[in-house]
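User: I'm writing a short report section on ligand binding and want a predicted complex to refer to. Could you take this sequence and zinc ion and write out the structure as tokens? A short remark afterwards would be nice.
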Amino acid sequence: MDSKTNSIHLQFNSFIMEKDKVVFCRPFYCPQCESLRRPLDEYYFVVFGHDSQAFFIHKARYKGIKWITPSIIFFDGKQDDTHKEIMVACSVVGCGMEIFHTDDKEYPYDINIKKVRLYKITHADYNALLGYKDETYKLD
Ligand SMILES: [Zn+2]
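Assistant: Sure. The structure tokens for the complex follow:
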């Protein structure tokens, strides 16, 4: 696989396909990347394009805070008066994501989410996360 952007087909685990889910891509702390002391600038990661509603793969050139990784965050509406429950998947391939080849000529790659972590965050933190644009791993 070369380092240029490859569009990948959304074939995906069923939980992502449900209509009511909010899916967005933000930097988030990954304990697994930290425990492995993973150097992010050597890895591929997956991002979700909100406008295209598709997933893309990039080679990391990330020079931000260590182990705050590009992550895909899901919110399916589960909340109470003070908190929302979000699911966070680290976007680093080999951590929260895995890539596999398909026989499809148009979409030669597909992704699986290997691992999702559940967090309860306040509504204010959720809104801050939604509004946060990290320019340090801004895409071409
Ligand atoms: Zn990770």
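A remark for your report: Residues 1-15 have pLDDT under 50 and may be disordered. The chain has three helices and nine strands.
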